[in-house]
TrEMBL record:
Keywords: Signal
InterPro entries per the UniProt record, alphabetical: Multihaem_cyt_sf, Multiheme_Cytochr_ET, Paired_CXXCH_1
Superkingdom of source: Bacteria
Signal sequence, start to end: 1-33
Domain Doubled CXXCH motif: from-to ranges: 177-208
Gene3D superfamilies for this protein: Flavocytochrome C3, Chain A
Protein name: Cytochrome c family protein
Length: 269
């Protein structure tokens, strides 16, 4: 539900106008002594819309405090009408409470209905609570480090799937595949489990894929990730799996297995 400030303001002005007339007529009738102290029950008589907002959308500002905990006094006599957030959310307590313009994100009568669209750059604020994600984006510089958090997190706790902004490497890929290889806050570090489909490598490595497919040796049955384990661009040594299978003299004379076996994907002799 979207709040319409303009409409609310007009209605409020209309209410205040009617009220002024009432107060004025009270004054001219000479009935005005010292005003009686207001109680929370009184607010609804004149600010019914605010009361409705707070009771239905106020979350802890409805349950943990009352109107009068925040609005210590009332105009025109009172001056402590609008509280500073720091009155209760002590900046010394949390980095988050040191940020400027709290109301830019939290309207106090419905503090958890945050419209990030209205909020300018949010990154410093997000990092005030999510230090890890901020650190990752700095430690692993990528094009994502240049984006504001809200480009991907349109609202708190939600996120845009990768495919909203990118093409997949192969047609069948879905979001879960993307984050199998990439993490959003350090996307250039590509890591994957042993069972990642070889078909996902194929989109970028046509040659190796084709050669391996035509291979009739036992390497044909191995997946890319079986040999190129865990991390993209990891290249295994033949000897890690095979040791030195031929006689020592041969290995000394031809230290590089590839000089006879030519290509791990083809294994020609
Ligand atoms: C008799 C009607 C009446 C009651 C009851 C009343 N108010 Fe008001 N309130 C007004 C009017 C009229 C104004 C505008 C006064 C002004 O701007 O000088 C106002 C202004 C305010 C403002 C300041 C708004 C601003 O823009 O600065 C706050 C806050 C406020 N009221 C809170 C409360 C709270 C909390 C209660 C209950 C404890 C309450 N009011 C009870 C009539 C009332
Ligand atoms: C957690 C503190 C807090 C509580 C609780 C709270 N308010 Fe407010 N209220 C504020 C602040 C801060 C503003 C000023 C908002 C701004 O600057 O736009 C405000 C603004 C107002 C205004 C001015 C008009 C408007 O809607 O912005 C009125 C009237 C008002 N409050 C009445 C109430 C009433 C009635 C209650 C109880 C049902 C209440 N408030 C509960 C903090 C609070
Ligand atoms: C009179 C004290 C008081 C004032 C003033 C006050 N708050 Fe709060 N606020 C509270 C309390 C108490 C809680 C509940 C804290 C808790 O449960 O840990 C709370 C909770 C919140 C929450 C979380 C709400 C939820 O339901 O989890 C937000 C967001 C918040 N305040 C923002 C603000 C902002 C922004 C301001 C200034 C516009 C402000 N508060 C002013 C007392 C206040
Ligand atoms: C850029 C937007 C933004 C600004 C500005 C902002 N906050 Fe928040 N705040 C958030 C978000 C997002 C959350 C998490 C809300 C949730 O958990 O649903 C939050 C949560 C909170 C909470 C509840 C959780 C907690 O840790 O206590 C309080 C209280 C709070 N903010 C107070 C403030 C105060 C006080 C200010 C100003 C000093 C402020 N916020 C400025 C976005 C903002
Ligand atoms: C006041 C502290 C606070 C602020 C500010 C804050 N968050 Fe959060 N955020 C939380 C808390 C607490 C949770 C719930 C934590 C959990 O479930 O592990 C959360 C959850 C999340 C989640 C979902 C985590 C999950 O596992 O589902 C995302 C995404 C997120 N925040 C992003 C952001 C972004 C982006 C911002 C800036 C607009 C932000 N947060 C600002 C406290 C905050
Ligand atoms: C809001 C749009 C958006 C979303 C959502 C998004 N990205 Fe990006 N991403 C970009 C932009 C913009 C760039 C830089 C330009 C480009 O390469 O298209 C980028 C670049 C990248 C890069 C290259 C980084 C570099 O520095 O070279 C990778 C990898 C990447 N994104 C992966 C992902 C993955 C995986 C996801 C989902 C977890 C994702 N992106 C979600 C906008 C987005
Ligand atoms: C390019 C898009 C993108 C950007 C930019 C981005 N995030 Fe995320 N973020 C995601 C995606 C996608 C997820 C969900 C990852 C998943 O499904 O495991 C996520 C998850 C999170 C989570 C939940 C915990 C976790 O790690 O799974 C938090 C908290 C979070 N992001 C905070 C932030 C903050 C803070 C920023 C800015 C400093 C930010 N993100 C920038 C896309 C992004
Ligand atoms: C099998 C692992 C794997 C999967 C699954 C995967 N990626 Fe990638 N992605 C990579 C590798 C490897 C690179 C190239 C990194 C390099 O150049 O060093 C890359 C690069 C990218 C880039 C940078 C631009 C480019 O094309 O080189 C983007 C953007 C990207 N991936 C997005 C995605 C998205 C979106 C998905 C999900 C649809 C996804 N990736 C799934 C491994 C994967
Ligand atoms: C988005 C495209 C993309 C995807 C998907 C991709 N790669 Fe790559 N890969 C590249 C690029 C770009 C290079 C660098 C090529 C160069 O340097 O000539 C590379 C290089 C490599 C290298 C060679 C490293 C070296 O030192 O020569 C290996 C091995 C490799 N990839 C394996 C894989 C495996 C295994 C997969 C699947 C799990 C995969 N790649 C998925 C783009 C991709
Ligand atoms: C990650 C482990 C791994 C790596 C690295 C590896 N291989 Fe293999 N290789 C295997 C497995 C598993 C087999 C099948 C063995 C079996 O079934 O007995 C095999 C079989 C072979 C065979 C026999 C093929 C056949 O069909 O009989 C040759 C020859 C061979 N490898 C050569 C090499 C060479 C040369 C390299 C380096 C370029 C290499 N391998 C790297 C795991 C590996
Ligand atoms: C049996 C293990 C094994 C399998 C299976 C395997 N590779 Fe390789 N790959 C290697 C080895 C060993 C090298 C290093 C060759 C060298 O030193 O010249 C290599 C090199 C590469 C290179 C670097 C460029 C080149 O051709 O030398 C790429 C790219 C590559 N592999 C991609 C793949 C892809 C994609 C797959 C799955 C289709 C795959 N590999 C399957 C062992 C394997
Ligand atoms: C001088 C050429 C030469 C070199 C160098 C060489 N090989 Fe071979 N390798 C062969 C020949 C020839 C065969 C037998 C092929 C056949 O029987 O089909 C063979 C067979 C193998 C086999 C299959 C053995 C079996 O019992 O099925 C493996 C595994 C193997 N080589 C691994 C290696 C490794 C690992 C290296 C490097 C450390 C290496 N080779 C270096 C020529 C060579």
């Amino acid at each position: 539900m979207k709040f319409n400030f303009q409409e609310e303001n007009m209605m409020r002005r209309a209410t205040i106008f009617v009220l002024s007339l009432t107060l004025l007529s009270l004054t001219t009738s000479g009935a005005l002594a010292d005003p009686l102290p207001l109680s929370t029950d009184d607010c609804a008589k004149c600010h019914d819309e605010v009361v409705t907002d707070v009771t239905t959308r106020g979350s802890k500002h409805n349950t943990a405090v009352t109107c009068l905990d925040c609005h210590l006094e009332h105009p025109p006599k009172g001056t402590e009408v609008i509280p500073a957030c720091s009155m209760c959310h002590d900046p010394a307590e949390k980095t988050h409470y040191t940020i400027d313009n709290c109301i830019g994100c939290h309207y106090p009568h419905y503090p958890l209905e945050i419209d990030l669209d209205e909020a300018g750059t949010v990154k410093p604020v997000c990092i005030s609570c999510h230090e890890n994600e901020g650190t990752q984006l700095v430690d692993y510089p990528s094009m994502h480090s240049e984006l504001d958090c809200k480009e991907c997190h349109l609202a708190h706790g939600q996120f845009l799937p990768c495919l909203e902004c990118h093409e997949p490497h192969t047609e069948e890929m879905i979001y879960e595949d993307c984050i199998t290889c990439h993490q959003p806050h350090k996307p250039t570090v590509v890591k994957y489990p042993d069972n990642i489909q070889s078909a996902y490598c194929a989109g970028c490595h046509e040659t190796e894929t084709a050669v391996l497919a035509q291979n009739t040796t036992k390497h044909h049955d191995l997946s890319c990730a079986y040999c190129h384990k865990m991390q993209h661009k990891m290249v295994p040594l033949c000897t890690t799996c095979h040791g030195t299978p031929h006689d020592a003299a041969l290995h000394t004379k031809f230290p590089d297995c590839i000089s006879c076996h030519i290509d791990p994907h083809g294994l020609e002799k």
